[in-house]
Amino acid sequence: MLLHALERGPENPSGNHLPVVFIHGLFGRGRNFGFFQRRLAESRRTIALDLRNHGESPHGPMDYPTLADDVYETLNHLGIHSAIIVGHSMGGKTGMMLALRHPEMVAKLLVADIAPGEGGFAQGHDLAAKLAALHFPASLNRAEADALLATVISEPEVRNLMLQNVELGEHPHWQIGINEIAAAMPQIVGWPEIPEGETYDGPTLFVAGQRSHYIAPENYPTMKRLFPHYMLKTIEGAGHWVHAEKPNEFYEILSEFIGDS
Description:
The chain has 261 residues and is an alpha/beta fold. The protein has two domains: 5-119 and 195-258, Alpha/Beta hydrolase fold, catalytic domain (Rossmann fold), CATH 3.40.50; 124-184, no CATH class. The chain contains ten helices and eleven strands. The chain has helices spanning 34-40, 64-77, 90-101, 124-132, 142-149, 156-163, 178-189, 220-226, 242-245, 247-258; strands at 5-8, 20-23, 46-49, 83-88, 106-112, 139-140, 166-167, 169-170, 173-174, 204-209, 230-235. Strand 10 (204-209), helix 8 and strand 11 (230-235) form a beta-alpha-beta unit. Helix 2 (64-77) crosses helix 3 (90-101), helix 4 (124-132) runs antiparallel to helix 7 and helix 5 (142-149) crosses helix 6 (156-163). The longest helix is centred in the first third of the chain and has 14 residues, at 64-77. It starts with a strand and ends with a helix. 44% of the residues are buried. The model has no long low-confidence stretch (mean pLDDT 94). GO terms for molecular function: carboxylic ester hydrolase activity. InterPro entries: AB_hydrolase_1, AB_hydrolase_fold, Epox_hydrolase-like. Residues 19-247 form the AB hydrolase-1 domain. This is Esterase. Keywords: Hydrolase.
């Protein structure tokens, strides 16, 4: 499946810098990485993808091998055969799967606050089903949509994330494939069994939020087995939305990891 891609880059490209590809998390979209994409685009090609069932991309059944193959197909379509991959949460798992299935595509891998294992968006199982069951009235403005979502989402920051996925006005509806997402929640929260010996040997950086529990010591052996050259950095005071909560700290780590590649 070809995904919707938001591209940014310098007006007059120079040098041989690798492109940077951003992959968002559950219920997000590519433009959520705008702060980082705009800064990096001053000197290199950048692409922010909408995964299937998200943003402006098509809908369909989803699991991590499928998501990774979507990214691979889309990047090839864009003429990209090697890139630095940056993924958060579900996007981080997608990036890991891309690196394991198509290592030649991934020059470097940065995974933001997720591990190769069970975990991620712990409330997603129930939330996705409740969102799919919401009944929209004949018309809806933002305040009304916020009040409607508040019946199932208490956290304002999560509601703000979800509001970007509602088409407001007359005949309001979900832009995202909410039913497909709800059906896929076991696969999204889970992680498939990876055969022994299947690894990604390139540079890999896990960035954890200090207040988050999505990367835990019990994950380290699997991280080491699948990504033998991985490093782990923690951003103090950040939760799971590490790049949104501490954008300057995250950008500094990202920029250092990318280097002159």
